[in-house]
Structure formats: structure tokens, C-alpha cells
Specification:
Radius of gyration of chain A: 32 Å
Distance between the termini of chain A: 27 Å
Helix content of chain A: 40-55%
Strand content of chain A: 15-25%
Largest interface: A-B, 60 and 60 residues
Structural class of chain A: alpha/beta
Oligomer: homodimer
Chain lengths: ~900, ~900
């Protein structure tokens, strides 16, 4: 085997080497290749990170000498040497995985400083304050990433405390008021502190510094926040991170220096204009950490038109080169512009849509690429969360519009508590309010409806993360004062305590009083255009799961091409109908039962007429009654309690007691696997006959009113072909009689849900009696795993945490197991009925990975809730794109 | 296509034509072929019956002229003609299906009698009484089978009433006291009655009589009792019945005439001696209907030594020819012996075993044939029901030992009520007590523990049926008087009313006072010999499902080769342990939980030591805890009621309330699919660690005591390979530590149950971490069908009645559906681990058809309850017999 090349100089690599060099490294190489002003450096491959992990946290033997060789090249390029007592080189050591994980892993800057090089650098720059500032930052950073542990005091925070104490002692308030001597004293204090905590001196050997930093970055791949991020983003843990070692340039050497972050287009709204922030006399971390509120990039045009021009030219060059919006870090060192990194820009959903559509119009990309660039989650952001039009609300303050969308929730002041109470926790609506956020807050941010911060810019890490996940965010709202300790914040005189409602509009940066109504947006403009493109590209049809005329109308507006699942029993729950249903269930004789069913018939027929009209000629798959009848009766436990209480008090209620007896007699140990679905239809055939009558008579009435109805009657929970045969015979008899009597022709079909494993296994038998199959993947997942959805939380959570399962199988189809049954059923079904129509109507029908899977195995359609219809259209189109290499292979 | 041959003369066919000619027809042909004195006749094929049914109850066109041709042959043979006014032929028309269904279908005798032939026959025989008796029987019988309907009075019973009335009028008590004139009057009364009820005269045309009779027999294939019988015996409804038309000979023409039924060996105990009954001056139906109590065949030797010798020679010839015990009907007409039919004799289980073993010793059959001849149900009879040795009991009366085995139950006087209350109904122990039984009583007999009749012989239909199904029966007990109307019977002065306990010993014909203890028999003699043969023949290993040392010892005595399923949680239910288990469940912390687990450890370790000792070196598959923990806590509904009652009374019970809160918090909607099996082991790893410790420490202790232990630790309810990996890692760690510390070597294995569909589908992944698979077909059936066993009765019963399912899938493996998953799992499992040990431990493991299936698909073993072990041994041997054509292809 050829020797593994673990280290690539920037000039050796290119943008296609993301697997080996990570996103940042590949881009640095590419930028170097296309002639941008990139400081020299090299990249250690992601495989080396895995080697390090596999060796139990050891660098491969001989690795540091490989580093020295590469370093020599950089030293030659820069004309400086690491650790040189005369002309020392400083370098940065940065993580860089294949997929961007902003702020999740560690970085070390100013590496190469020690007591010797500090002196050389002072001599060279004549700026002792800058050098000691760099040195104290380096001491702190290296300790924080490499040595900090729960049982020592070497975290960044511990060093900040020492700095604060010193500032108090010196009588100054802000960092920049501390002069060179002060910083020199701080460096000494840091060194003493390090020796005390670490049991040794801070390493003065620059190569040791380098090795320590590289190992720390490797280790940071597996820190908790990185793991959580990857789990959320479905990034494989096995990829590893690359490490980029690059000559330092400084934005904090004075007022002719600066640093910034910019996007080639507006990542929030998508407008085609350079968008970013910078700070003069600062290091990059000052901008991204959100501690100081930076200047908008447009100010640079007045402050330094030459640099501004140079920078915007580079932006244009980069966007043309990558045909994609770039997120760029830059530094100005004594008036010279350096590009430190570029990467594909994260953006909001609306921005993603606008940018993709704009780029097609600009000729930069084609329609397929545009479609491939929108993630379903981004599209989802376009569909959710605006304040209900016409709502009157009070804006208490304004901050930066860091994440679009409106959100409302109870104010919570720490991420841990937000995670506990919010989404994925107790399910309360939580709005996270923080002075500033840090990457450690990730879990809490994900659990929140929205995020509000006192400090931090549009590009602060937390804002970026929140935006990436479509969480409405208002950042840098300096009008508020957050008092996390006392669990409250103030706006002027107004105090908002933990648990009180607060709202934000992330699109406008507004902080809003109390709770407001939040509604979904219209689908117009670029959004509408993109959606039309997806319809051209996709092969899968998209239907909707809807039980009311209103839902049907909404889904059709969203592009649904029919109903995939209309749950007829939902129509039984309405207030005026439930007593009739109960009376039907309590009936002792068929005749009594029929009286009640006749009443229900009138309701259901009307429902169907309205649904057919809302569909306006689109097909409707209507499922016959499915849930156990006891679901329509009062709760058994409540009844037991009521009756026992009455009895103990010497009272009696014959109606209650009769109901209790009935509910007891119908009680099931495992109702999910009991008398429901087609089993009900066989034990109580009158119900199905009523439903068939309602459907067919409804279709006739709709047709008479000028709207063609295409009912597809679906028999649920079939496990044996004879169930379907038995019911089909009775359905057809009823239907034919009604149709014949009406003198009309009604084009109806009869099919079945495939949701019992046995049905999938014997689909060849079943397909002989079914014109269509619809996979009920909720139940199919329940039965295939033996998981009751009502009870599985208690073990599914630990299962996912312990990585026993890759994810919740009720969210995304388990292709390995449940998928096998689906594929068996499709193959067997079509073996006897080649034109069998096959779709899916479980909740997986609206989940992109499942939709892609349904496309791949050749289903005809997916059906999902109305609000998921646009996402399904997009996912179906993405699944059918000719070049699938464009999709992320996480 | 060649013209279908619908009619076969007896001399044209042979015994291999059972498909076409039915059992009786094929035997009549065979007997004719080997030269026995069989009256001439022909057989209409079973296919013609199906044609008749398919034509909607119409004979194929031209069929009656085919009949005439065949009849001409018979007429030539007998020198008589049907309907001839001078020398008339009379024929019988009998059903005869491929598999014997005694008394289930219709028969017409004396066909060919009319007002004209009656006169000819009187002239010919000079016996007017016999002729009118035959005529009145024929009138009654043809009306009963062909014309009787619920809305007329043409059933046998209606004619009996007329006869009774006449006897009263004539002042006589028994039939034989009515003279020729009386019977002539009766014939006239019958004809008037028939005209009134039927609206026409009784058909005088003999060919019309013949056609009516043939059609009636065809129709009787689908009467209710025939259907029930076929369902019980698993005979296909599509076979149809043949019809045998045969010249009549008469046993009722005087004292030199007679008729009888005999077996070539004793069908109750299996002794090698001709066994049967006969009546002089009687027709066959008098013997089999059980109205007159017949004479034992041995009496014939004294009464007519020549005929007796001739008959026993025929018996020997037949047994040698068929190499099987024969059930023979014979008639003596004026001193001439005729054989009317022979067929393989039904027999009791003990008789079947004795006969098969004897025949091997006699050189008539080989071991394989002997094994193939014992049905698992017959073997089952050898295993059940004797009165507990040493029991003192009072014999109230003695009858015929018609069905061996002891039974005890409440006296019930009609079959309908027995069916309602007994097995398959409310599940009470019922003893059916009848004056005599009729084929209509079948359902009630099957529901009873035993049957007691006042009248009827050993070969009465009902006794035969009861014996065939292993139901202990005492028949013809003339000491009792059954008063069905008043629901009681008397023995002397003793009155036993409905609902009072009564017992019988069918082996000795004893009627026993009250309830007695009934126990299972020893396994010795022929039984033991047969069992040894099965062990030589079978390939499958047989294990047992046992949780206690007692059960293990019993199973080993029955031939079990190890434990296939030891359910460890059953050990938690004992009185002294349950509070500890409850305390363990109520624990708030891991430490609290551990305290309780340590207590349980001591118990479980002791259990395992005892089990290993009882196994004496045989392997033991031990399943880790499986049921949801709330099964160990009090019932939720009871608690709700108790607490509500207390509260309503203003009292409070903090312990109860805490328990209620805990039970509520652990309550599951579908516990079958909830936190149980390996899910428990992952959420509460301490429990499994305790169990592993108990198993391994128990094995060490057993080994130290000199008994090798071979534990196979089984992880239940695995659905994803990672579950098994996760648990296996922890198990092995615990086990290795203990083994290492002990200084012993313990040969243990770790494997899994396959009971979740997903496990079967991903068995290739799972087998990489499992040394064995055991199919938990109970749960696998539940999940594959989506049937909760606890709740499925409500629809499984109608499903089986409506033939939606061929049978209860919890009884016999559903090979079409569940079987597919099993086969997938075996194939995939062995693809990665060729030596994977695969067995089955669901209740199907003791069911013969399922065992044959397990053999066929290559499993290594089946495991069943101790009492099923011998049956499993037999079924496994039968499955491995080289020539499977010997098995019934019902």
C-alpha cells in the first residue's frame, strides 16, 4: 500500500477534496489555486483524525516529522520560522470537517508565541501591547482547548476572571484600556495560574504547542456539543475532522487592521448584495463570538474604499467560481486584505429559495441545481410562523433580525431549562432569552420556539445555528438587560420574569409583548416558482391526509393531487355525532344499531359531498372505520373512579353503571392489536355498509352537482386475503345496488392498507383483490418493531441516546426492516397486478428521507398532512434529480 | 378430453381408488377383487358429487342413463331387476367419502320397494311382516334424508311418533310385537302423512327413488354435522362423497338372519382378537344406531360355529391383505354370510399404540409404518386421564367401556348445553349424559370431558366418535335412567341433577359418584417401545418449556433433551418474592434497586442450581426477564376503585396512593408492545446483571456439586441487532468476571429469541451476535398478524366460522405468513453463521403440524410443555419418515 498522504499543502489540494481536507481546507486550497490572498498553510486529513481516535488518542508514529516538513514549506513561503528568536512565525490551528459545524469544535490562534518569540515579535512590530494581548489570548486558548477539565480551572472563563480581577486592580473597565504592561502582568499571572492548575509550566516548546493543539482539535470532534450537532444534522460520527494550520495574520495590530465575516448575499432574506460585519483592531473571534457588536460591511466602503472594492471583487469572483453563496472570513493586516476561509453560506429558508431562484435567472445554475440546493427544512421555514395578519401587538424593543419567523413562548433564561421544558422535553412553548448565546446552548436553542439575545451579531455562532434550524431569533437587542441569575429581563422599567409569555418577530428583529397569534405564510413569488419547477422534475405524485373539506382545500392549494388518506372515523368525533356513535355501540340488537347508523349516514354523506367538491375531480382514498369502538366511549379508569365514588357515598347512577359495564366488556389489553380495522367491519358489517353507502351516495350527489368524484375505498388492517375478499364482496354489493339505482356511473376503486406484516408478506394474494395498496407505515412500523407508539417513549429515548437505533423509526422509515416488508409487498403485489397503484399514507409520507426511499423503490405516490405537501413536492423532485451526487452523502 | 367415468362397478375398481370411489367404495371393490362375498354393486365417484354441487344441485345431464347401464350389470349379477313386479331387486344407497365420517352423511336402504314390488317380495319370501317392515323403514328413511325440512314433519322422528301412536292403539309395547297387518296399516298411515306433508304421493317410480336418494346423499356432504366433523378433523370440504349402490341383503328376515359390526382387533385396548357385536333378525342400522344393545361377536361361535369360522377367516384374510385393523359390516341372510363393507378401524390411543407395536412384532408392518399409524391425538390419549392412583371412589353402575380414560364433570343432559358450557364454550368441566347419542350430538360431545349413555353399544356412532377424539365414554349403561326433560338421571334411588358432579372411568366402563381426581398415566410397555422407535427415526431434537425443577424432571422423564425455554420471571411471582420484586420496581434510585435485586439473586441462583441438577448435563435455554414490570404490581383498575372509595369516605391510605401513582406512571396502552423484553434490560441493566450472575453462579455451584451445567442465555424481544450487541457486551462482562473469579470453566452460550418481525427480517445482522435463535412463535404470530392474544377471541371465532382463517394461528403455525418470516430468518441467520442453532419455543412447538413444518424447514429442535414432549417426539419422527405418502393428505 502506498504511504498515506496525511498532510496537504494548500497549493496541493482543491475543492473536490472535502472528504480528505474538510470543507474549510478544501476551500483554502481552492482559493489558493484561484489566486486569492490566502496566508500560507497546510491541512491534516480527516483520516488522520480517525487514526488518532483509533489509536486511542495517539498520533500515528512519525507524524510530527511529517508536520515539520510541511511547516518548513510554509516557513519558506512566509519567510518566517516557527519559534524563531528573530523572525518568528505564528500559526492558527483550526478544525474543518467535511460538513460545516460552526463553533462546535476547537481552534487555537497565535500558536508559536513563547517567552522568546514574544520578545522578537515586539521588536519586529514595535507593538508590545498587541504582542502581550496575543500571548495572553494564546495562553488562555490553548489551556481552554487542551488542558481544561472539570476538576481544574483552566477554562476560558477562569482566565477571564483573572483578567477581570486585574482590571479592577488597575481601575480600568474595558480590555482595550489595559496597556502593554498590564497585559504583560496578565501573562505572568496566567503562567503562575497554569503552573498551579496544570502542575507544570506552560509549554514553551513551539512544536510541543503545535502537537498539543493538533491533538486537542482532533479530540474536539468527539466533544458533546459536536456530537449533539451531528445527531441533529444527521452527520456521520465516522467522518472525522481535518486540521488546518495556517500562518497568522492579525486584525488587531492597530486601527489599520481589522477582521470580518461576510456573505456574498444576504443570508436572511436572500437579496443579492454583500452582507456582513467587521471590526477594526480586532481578532476574528471578537466578531463571531458576539461579544462586541460589529459594523455592517457597507461601512467599510466609506472607511476604506480600496479594500472594500478589493473585497467585493473577491466576493464576486468566489460566487462565480463556486456558483454558490459564500461565507467568508477576512482579515486586514496593516491595510492588506487576507482571505482566511470561505465556505458555502448557511441561510434561512426564504433566503435559500430566493437565492436559488435568482441564480437560475442570473444563469449561474440550472433548475435541477436550484432544487437540489433547498433543504426540506429550509422550505419548511417558508411555510411557518408569521404573526397572524391584522394582529395588534406591542413592540417592546428592536434587535437584529437574526432568524426569520415569528415565535411566542414563555421566557426561559438558561439553555438547560429550555431543553427540559421545550420541544423534545415537556413540550412547552419556550422562548430562550440570553445575554449572549454560546455553542454550549445548542440543545436549549433546538428546544425553543425562538431565541432572544442582548448581545451578539447576525453572524454570532448561536444566531447562525438557530437560523440554520429555522428557529426565529432576535439577536443583539441592546435595549434589554438580561438577569439570568434572577431569572428575569428588563426593557426599560418593564420586568419580564421566567414563565411569562414573550414573543419575537425574527424577520424584523422585533421583541413583542406577551403572547401573539402566529400563522403560516402565503406561497408566492420565488417560492411559487420553485414549487412549479419541482412539479416538473418529480415522478412521485403527492397526495394529502385530510379529513375535512377545509384541510382538503388547504392541501389542494399547497399542490396536493388528491387525498391519500381520509380517516372516516374522525367524522364520528364531532360533538353532535359522538352520542349517536355511542348509542350505536351500546346497541343490543342489529336493528337498534341500524337506527343509529342511519343517523350517521346522513352526516357522513354530507361530509363526503363537501370533500369531493373541495377536491374538484381529484381522487380520494377513503379509509373505512379503523379504531377500536371503545375509543368513542368514556375512559374506563375515569368511569371506575366515578362509579366507585358514587357507591362509596351510597349513591347510584344506572346510566353510568351501564356505561361502565359496556366499557369494561369492550376493554382490551392491547387495543392496537385488537378489534379494529377490517376486523370491526367483519364483526359489525352494518358499519361498513353504512360507510359505503355514504361514500357512493356522496359521489352521486357530487356528480349531480357537476363535480366528478373518484372515491377509492380503502380497507384497513388487512392481514389475510380472506378479510379483504369478505369485505370487498359486501362493499361491491352495496355499491353496485346504489349506483344501479341512481342511473349514474361512478368510477370507484377498492383497495387496502398494507400495515400488518402478514399483509406485506402475502401481498401477492391480497393484490388479486385490491386495486391499490397504501402503506400505513405508522402501524407497519409498530408491528414490525413491536413498538407501541403510545408507550415507546420510555425506551426510544434511551435507544437513540445509546445509539441502539439510528433515529426514531416513527419519524423516518426504517429502511432495513420495515423497508424490507414494503419492498416485498410492492414486488409481490405487482407480480400479480402489474398496474397496482401503490402509495404511502403514514406520517413518513411527509418526511424527506422516507420520500426519497419511496421514490427509489417505485411507489406511485406519497400522502402527507397539508402543511407537508410543499416539502413532499420538493423532496420528491430532489429524489428524481438526474445527478444524485449533488445530494449530501452524510 | 376423454369422457369422465362417473360410475365404477365394484369389480372394476380397487383399494387405491379412494380419491374417486371414497374409502367404502374402494374397499368394496378391493374386497370383490380378493374374492370376498360382497353383494354386487357400483360406486358413483366423488367428482360427480362435486359436479352436482357445482351445477347448483343438479345431476350432470345423461347421468341417470349411465346409472341404468351400471344397474343392468348388477341386475344381471343378482338375477333380479329393480322395480320388477315378479323378481324385484332392492338396493342400498350409501355415502362414502375418502376419509371415514361415520354417521355424518345419509344412507337409504331397501330402495326399490313400492306398492308393486312389495307384493312380489311377499310372494317371493313368504314373509309379509319383513316386507312391510322394510317398506315402512324405506318410506321413513327416504323422506328423512330427501324431503325432511324444518317446516315439514318428514323427519325420522315424526314417523316414529306415528308408529308409537299405532303401537298404543294396538296395545303393544315393542316394534317386533307389531304383526304384518299392523305394519301394513303403518305403511298406509305413512303414505297419507307423506302426501299431506309433501303435497304429493310417495314416489312409486323406482328410478325416481334412486335419483332422489343419490341427490340426497350428495347433498348430505354439506349438512351441518358433516361440516363440523370435517372442520374438527381437518378434512377438506372440496373432496365430496362417493355414493355406493349395492344389492340389499337382509339380516332381518328371521332368526337365521342377522347383522353385525366387528373389528379385527379390539379397538379400545388393542388386543389381537376379533371384537364386535351382532344382532339376529335385525338390519345393520339397529346395531350401529345403538337402539338395541347387541351381542358380543364371541357369542356367534356358539350360535353358529360355521358362520363364525367363515367370518374370522375373512377377518384374518382382510388384516393380512390390508396389514391394518379392519372395521367390518356383515349380514347373514338365511345362513349365508355377506360382507357389506370394510374400512380401517378407528381405535383409541392405547389401542393404536398396542396394535402398531404388535403388528411390528408380528412382522405385518415395519417400524416406520407403525410410527406413521399413530396420530398425535391418539398418543395424547395415552398420556391423559386416569383416576389418581389410591383414590377411593364409589362405583354407582357399570356400562360398556366405550372410550378409555377417566373423566369428571358436571352432568349435562343435552348436547347443545354441553357445547355452551364446556370446552370451546364457557370452559366448564362437563359430562354429557344421554339416553343414547346421535350424530347430531357431535358438537356437544367434543365439548365434554366424557360421555355417559343409557343405551347403545361399543360401536354406536356416538361412542365411536367420542373414542376417536379421545373422550372417555361409558355407553349402554342400562343401570341408569336418563330423564332429559327434567334434567336429571337416576341410578336406583339416587338422583343426579344437572350441574352435579359425576365421573366415569371409560377404560373400565365405570360410573363413579361425584368428582374424582384424574391424573396422567405412566409411560410403559408398548408405549415405551414406540417412543424409543420415534427417537431413532426423528431428526429434530425435542426440548421442553419448563421453569421449575419439578417440571424439568417430568419433561426429562418424558424424553426431553434439554430446556428450550426457562422463563425466569415466573420465579418472581412466588409469594415470598413478589414483595421484593415490587420493592425493586418502586425503587427511586439504582442503589435502592440493587438492595432488592441482591435479595432476588439468592433466590434465582438457588432455582438455577436445582434446574441444572434436574437436567443432569442437558442444556438449558434461559430467557432473561420478559414481561412488563407492571405485571408484578397490583391491578390499576382495582387500585383506582379502592383509592376512590377511600377518598369518597374521607379516608386516605398513603401506601395505596403511592402504589396507584406508580402503577399509573407505569401503565401502558399496549403493554405487549411496550417496555418489556430486552427493552427492560437496556432501561434497567441491573436486572439483567443480577440474572446473569444468578445463572453463571448457579452453573458454577452445580458443577462444583458434580453436575455439568450448559446454560444458554436468551435475550428476548430483540428487534434491532444493536439491542443484542448492547446487552451481550454487558452479559459477557459480568459472566466472564464471575467465571474468572471462580476458577472454573463454564460452557455458556448467548442467543436470542426471534419474535419480532424485524428481527426475522434482519436475522443476518443479528446472527453475527447470537449463537442460537429460538423462535418465539406466540409473539411472532401476534406481531405478524397484529393480533393481541388477550383480545383476539372476539374476532378469531367469527373468522374461523366464516372461514376467513383456516384455523387459529396461535394453535398451528401460519405457514403462509409467519412461516415466511421464520424461513427468512433461518436462511439469513445461517448465511452468516452456518452452525447457528435454531429452535422454536412458542406453544406451536408441541403441535404436530407445526412440528412437521419445523422439521421441513430445517430447525434443530422444538420445545414444548412437558406433557407434549412424547407427542413432539412422535410428530418429529413422523415428519422424518422416508415415505410421506403414508400420511393423510386431507
Amino acid at each position: 500500500m502506498a504511504k498515506l498522504k496525511r498532510i496537504w499543502l494548500f497549493r496541493e489540494g482543491n475543492v473536490n477534496m472535502r472528504d480528505e481536507l474538510g470543507g474549510k481546507g478544501a476551500n483554502l486550497a481552492e482559493m489558493t489555486k484561484i489566486g486569492l490572498p490566502v496566508p500560507a498553510g497546510f491541512t491534516i486529513t480527516t483520516m488522520t483524525c480517525n487514526e488518532y481516535t483509533d489509536l486511542g488518542g495517539q498520533l500515528p508514529s512519525g507524524f510530527m516529522s511529517e508536520i515539520k516538513t510541511a511547516l518548513a514549506d510554509v516557513e519558506k513561503d512566509m519567510g518566517k520560522k516557527l519559534g524563531d528568536p528573530i523572525n518568528p512565525l505564528l500559526v492558527s490551528v483550526r478544525s474543518g470537517a467535511k460538513f460545516s459545524m460552526p463553533g462546535m469544535m476547537d481552534t487555537v490562534l497565535n500558536l508559536g508565541l513563547n517567552d522568546v518569540t514574544v520578545k522578537a515579535l515586539i521588536k519586529e512590530t514595535g507593538n508590545a501591547r498587541f504582542v502581550y494581548d496575543s500571548y495572553r489570548r494564546f495562553l488562555m486558548m490553548l489551556c481552554d482547548v487542551a488542558f481544561s477539565k472539570p476538576d481544574n480551572k483552566l477554562a476560558k472563563h477562569d482566565f477571564e476572571v483573572i483578567f477581570s480581577d486585574l482590571k479592577k486592580k488597575l481601575g480600568v473597565k474595558i480590555d482595550t484600556d489595559v496597556d502593554a504592561d498590564g497585559l504583560k502582568e496578565l501573562v505572568d499571572l496566567y503562567k503562575v495560574h497554569i503552573k498551579k492548575e496544570l502542575g507544570r509550566d506552560f509549554p514553551q516548546d513551539v512544536f510541543e504547542q503545535l502537537q498539543i493543539s493538533i491533538e486537542a482539535v482532533f479530540r474536539s470532534w468527539n466533544n458533546d456539543r459536536a456530537k449533539i450537532y451531528r445527531q441533529r444534522e444527521k452527520i456521520s460520527d465516522s467522518l472525522g475532522t481535518a486540521v488546518n494550520i495556517q500562518a497568522m495574520v492579525f486584525g488587531n495590530m492597530g486601527q489599520d487592521c481589522g477582521t470580518g465575516v461576510a456573505f456574498t448575499r444576504d443570508p436572511a432574506a436572500g437579496h443579492n448584495q454583500v452582507f456582513g460585519e467587521y471590526l477594526m483592531d480586532a481578532q476574528g473571534e471578537d466578531v463571531v463570538a458576539g461579544v462586541r457588536t460589529p459594523m455592517p460591511i457597507s461601512k467599510l466602503e466609506t472607511q476604506n474604499p480600496k479594500i472594500y472594492k478589493e473585497f467585493t471583487d473577491i466576493c464576486e469572483k468566489l460566487e462565480k467560481h463556486y456558483r454558490e453563496v459564500q461565507d467568508i472570513e477576512f482579515t486586514i493586516e496593516h491595510g492588506v486584505l487576507y482571505i482566511l476561509q470561505c465556505r458555502t453560506a448557511k441561510r434561512t429558508g426564504p433566503a435559500a429559495v430566493k437565492i436559488a431562484v435568482d441564480m437560475v435567472h442570473e444563469g449561474l445554475i440550472n433548475i435541477n441545481t436550484a432544487i437540489s440546493r433547498i433543504s426540506p427544512d429550509q422550505l419548511d421555514q417558508c411555510l411557518h410562523a408569521i404573526i397572524a395578519p391584522g394582529t395588534k401587538y406591542t413592540v417592546l424593543a428592536k434587535g437584529l433580525p437574526a432568524g426569520p419567523g415569528a415565535a411566542t413562548g414563555i421566557a426561559i433564561f438558561d439553555a438547560h431549562r429550555a431543553a427540559e421544558l421545550g420541544k423534545g422535553g415537556k413540550g412547552q412553548k419556550v422562548l430562550l432569552v440570553r445575554a449572549d448565546t454560546s455553542p454550549d446552548d445548542l440543545k436549549g436553542i433546538l428546544a425553543s420556539e425562538g431565541v432572544l439575545t442582548e448581545r451578539g451579531g447576525m453572524t454570532s455562532h448561536a444566531a447562525l445555528v438557530a437560523r440554520g434550524f429555522g428557529i426565529p431569533t432576535v439577536a443583539g437587542c441592546s435595549a434589554i438587560r438580561v438577569d439570568a441569575k434572577n431569572r428575569q429581563f428588563t426593557i426599560g422599567n418593564k420586568v419580564i420574569k421566567e414563565g411569562e409569555f414573550i414573543s419575537i418577530n425574527g424577520t424584523l428583529g422585533e421583541v413583542i409583548e406577551g403572547e401573539v397569534a402566529v400563522v403560516d405564510p402565503e406561497m408566492t413569488g420565488e417560492f411559487g416558482e420553485l414549487m412549479k419547477w419541482t412539479d416538473k422534475v418529480r415522478r412521485l405524485n403527492i397526495r394529502t391526509n385530510a379529513d375535512t373539506p377545509e384541510d382538503v382545500a388547504l392541501a389542494v392549494k399547497f399542490g396536493a393531487e388528491g387525498i391519500g388518506l381520509c380517516r372516516t372515523e374522525h367524522m364520528f368525533f364531532a360533538t353532535e355525532r359522538r352520542p349517536i356513535v355511542q348509542a350505536m355501540i351500546m346497541s343490543e340488537t342489529d336493528a337498534e344499531r341500524q337506527v343509529q347508523l342511519d343517523k350517521l349516514l346522513a352526516f357522513q354523506r354530507k361530509d363526503f359531498v363537501q370533500i369531493f367538491k373541495a377536491l374538484n375531480g381529484l381522487p380520494a382514498t377513503i379509509r373505512l372505520i379503523d379504531p377500536p369502538l371503545h375509543e368513542f366511549l368514556p375512559n374506563l379508569e375515569d368511569l371506575i373512579e366515578e362509579v366507585a365514588t358514587l357507591k362509596a357515598k351510597g349513591k347510584s347512577d344506572p346510566v353510568k353503571e351501564e356505561m361502565l359495564a359496556k366499557v369494561r366488556s369492550m376493554h382490551e389489553v392491547n387495543p392496537m392489536m385488537g378489534l379494529r380495522g377490517c376486523r370491526l367491519s367483519i364483526v359489525f358489517p352494518q358499519i361498513v355498509e353504512m360507510q359505503t353507502r355514504a361514500i357512493i351516495e356522496g359521489a352521486i350527489e357530487s356528480k349531480k352537482a357537476g363535480v366528478e368524484a373518484l372515491p377509492e375505498i380503502m380497507v384497513p388492517l388487512v392481514g389475510h386475503v380472506n378479510e379483504l375478499k369478505w369485505i370487498r364482496e359486501r362493499l361491491e354489493k352495496t355499491a353496485k345496488e346504489i349506483v344501479k339505482k341512481s342511473g349514474q356511473t361512478i368510477d370507484y376503486k377498492i383497495g387496502t392498507m398494507i400495515e400488518i406484516p402478514r399483509a406485506a408478506l402475502t401481498a401477492d394474494q391480497i393484490a388479486q383483490h385490491a386495486e391499490f395498496f397504501s402503506f400505513g407505515t405508522n402501524d407497519l412500523t409498530q408491528m414490525t418493531f413491536g413498538y407501541s407508539r403510545d408507550d415507546s417513549d420510555r425506551f426510544l429515548k434511551p435507544y437513540i441516546e445509546e445509539k441502539i437505533l439510528p433515529g426514531d423509526p416513527f419519524e423516518s422509515i426504517d429502511q432495513d426492516g420495515v423497508g424490507q416488508l414494503i419492498e416485498i409487498a410492492v414486488k409481490k403485489g405487482r407480480s400479480v397486478r402489474p398496474k397496482l397503484k401503490v402509495g404511502i399514507c403514514g406520517e413518513h409520507g411527509g418526511e424527506p428521507a422516507s420520500i426519497a426511499y419511496c421514490h427509489r423503490i417505485g411507489l406511485d405516490y406519497v400522502s402527507c398532512s397539508p402543511y407537508r405537501v410543499p416539502i413532499a413536492r420538493l423532496a420528491a423532485a430532489q429524489a428524481n434529480l438526474p445527478d444524485t451526487s449533488a445530494s449530501k452523502d452524510k
